[in-house]
Design brief:
Helix content is 37%, strand content 23%. By secondary structure, it is α/β, with parallel strands linked by helices.
């Protein structure tokens, strides 16, 4: 619950939403942005080469959405495209298949008011099953019973200048790009806090289940090796 005594600043928040073949979920994601109690200054949807009806749905949503298109290059590149096209003092991100709670931005901006020295604010996340998953598919997964701290792009609100201190996302990373960026943010000394409230709803569906455990382990292992190698190199300097 937001403290009603906190006077929120009138700042511009840019929301970046990368999407690839997201026709099933994109409208829900956009609705969760448009229903925010603190309205963002701009919402930039970057289509990453979709072959379904995603682009038509986004363009029909209304003039409040800026729609950009690129060839299929991955979420990191799509986020970078959105960042470079944005102008807000704060940056927020949402994946096309996930949702925000209605007062996500309001709660996080209030945290910045209370602690101006912060560079970014996170919140907790709740995971939920997509209705399309049958009982057999659901039985393969055990979702956390309680909300969990989420150091994820979708749960973050970050000052633009702070984000750029850590740099853009690494386009060579297809899975784990947010983990790699977060490690760079820590190395850059960015100050962060975790709100106890839920700000982010992560949908579990067939597509994100479809990434095999072996593929995930391999990609995350590569990211972790890169991080460790960089930190060893920094210690030698």
């Amino acid at each position: 619950m937001t403290d009603s005594t906190v006077q929120l600043p009138q700042v511009a928040v840019s929301v970046i939403l990368p999407v690839y073949n997201g026709e099933r979920y994109i409208i829900e994601a956009l609705d969760s942005i448009s229903s925010q109690t603190y309205q963002p200054a701009e919402v930039i949807v970057v289509d990453d080469g979709s072959t379904d009806k995603t682009v038509d749905l986004v363009e029909s949503y209304g003039s409040s959405i800026t729609s950009l298109r690129q060839g299929n290059s991955g979420a990191a590149t799509a986020r970078n495209t959105g960042i470079q096209a944005s102008s807000g003092e704060y940056l927020a991100f949402l994946d096309h298949d996930d949702l925000w709670v209605a007062n996500k931005l309001e709660m996080q901006l209030a945290a910045f008011v209370k602690k101006p020295e912060l560079d970014m604010v996170f919140g907790h996340a709740t995971q939920f099953y997509c209705q399309s998953l049958d009982e057999t598919e659901r039985s393969k997964l055990k979702l956390p019973e309680k909300p969990m701290p989420a150091y994820l792009a979708g749960s973050r609100l970050v000052k633009r200048e702070s984000f750029l201190k850590a740099g853009l996302y690494d386009p060579s990373i297809r899975m784990g790009e947010c983990l790699e960026w977060h490690a760079r943010a820590i190395d850059a000394g960015l100050k962060m806090c975790m709100l106890p409230e839920v700000v982010y709803l992560r949908r579990i569906h067939a597509t994100n289940m479809g990434r095999t455990a072996a593929e995930s382990r391999s990609e995350y292992a590569r990211v972790m090796k890169r991080l460790l190698d960089r930190r060893r190199q920094q210690k030698r300097v």
